[in-house]
Design brief:
12 helices; TIM Barrel
């Protein structure tokens, strides 16, 4: 008899539950679902569609919602600079993986509302998240009916927040007005996803990278109290996910150009974000994902997790799987974490749709072996 995701034989090494953050750089949705289900399915409660193709660029894909809107134009100053003017501590970032952009390309310049346009008249069209989720869920259901995917598995939709969109695509001076405009459109798509997919089949995960950068003082925040503003805005996103739908939170330090926008000193800021957010929302946060840099094998990085007071319904996932040092390094990070937290799942530190496609199979295999 096959063991369930949480069962194990006495004396065997713990088989940690696995989470995929979202993007998986394979050909298409069906390839991702079949590959992941066959390699990792008995250790996963939820499967993403892999955010393949143009969506592999994460927060770049929704740019089209303002590119196609006549109220917007490319910012002349950033166009003259040849690409997005990245915040100082990050340096210049370049595209390194996937086929959605030319290799080595910089992020495109931000956009602005055209001079003379009244922001109150702007109406954004569909971003496309709801349409894609509906299409991918149809593939998911078919494969589940064919017994490729386990019956109890949920379909996971991972979404960049409003802050991610603003940081990537809107000039800073217009963040205050565009915050509400884009958030309303984004959360309307969440409503549509939740209407289209049964609650018992659905997980929605918010990818909070820009928020962590604002918390760390690396990226611009248009609100005076960065920490309070981050919690308030994340809470609005979380509250929009209805009861019965799983809610996940990915606290992210970035992977554009295969590096972080800042190396976290330890897990303390992520512990604080979760603690304050959990107190601010009325619904359960079903899981929390915390990244672990490849270089951190030490106790000091994980020590703040001892202060993490997870609610009973919240599962912790640590993004400690790295192919750079393989199984040995991954198990060392697992052992270090286990000194401070008793129960956790494992994951990569971020999505891996932006990695060279030829590396994906080995990385999935490492998940299976860890």
């Amino acid at each position: 008899m096959q063991l369930s995701i949480l069962e194990q034989n006495p004396g065997e090494r713990t088989r940690h539950e696995i989470l995929l953050v979202g993007s998986v750089g394979l050909r298409d949705t069906e390839t991702v679902l079949r590959t992941v289900a066959s390699m990792l399915g008995n250790r996963m409660r939820r499967l993403p569609d892999g955010e393949t193709g143009a969506r592999s660029t994460w927060s770049l894909w929704p740019r089209r919602v303002i590119e196609s809107n006549p109220a917007f134009e490319v910012d002349p100053a950033e166009a003259a600079a040849g690409g997005r003017v990245t915040h100082g501590p990050e340096g210049v970032r370049r595209w390194t993986g996937g086929a959605a952009q030319e290799q080595g390309a910089p992020p495109p310049p931000r956009m602005r509302i055209k001079p003379g346009i009244d922001a109150s008249t702007i109406r954004l069209g569909a971003i496309g998240y709801a349409e894609v989720a509906r299409e991918s869920y149809a593939v998911f259901r078919r494969l589940r009916a064919e017994n490729v995917i386990r019956l109890e598995t949920r379909f996971q939709v991972s979404l960049p927040t409003t802050a991610a969109f603003l940081n990537a695509h809107v000039v800073y001076a217009q963040h205050p007005v565009m915050d509400r405009i884009y958030r309303d459109r984004l959360l309307a798509e969440v409503d549509q996803i939740c209407d289209d997919i049964p609650a018992q089949d659905l997980t929605i995960q918010w990818d909070a990278s820009t928020e962590m950068a604002q918390w760390e003082g690396v990226r611009y925040a248009h609100f005076p109290d960065a920490k309070a503003g981050v919690v308030e805005r994340l809470a609005r996103h979380c509250e929009r996910v209805p009861a019965g739908v799983e809610l996940g939170l990915h606290l992210c330090y970035g992977s554009y150009g295969n590096r972080h926008w800042k190396e976290p000193e330890d897990t303390s800021n992520m512990v604080e974000v979760y603690t304050r957010l959990a107190a601010a929302v009325s619904r359960p946060i079903n899981y929390l994902h915390v990244p672990v840099p490849a270089s951190r094998l030490d106790r000091a990085y994980f020590a703040p997790l001892a202060r993490l007071e997870l609610r009973p319904e919240t599962k912790l996932f640590l993004g400690l799987i790295h192919d750079g040092d393989g199984l040995d390094g991954t198990r060392q990070r697992i052992a270090a974490a286990a000194q401070f937290v008793a129960d956790f799942g494992i994951a990569a530190e971020c999505g891996f749709g932006r990695r060279p496609p030829e590396t994906i199979s080995d990385l999935l295999r490492l998940h299976a072996e860890a």
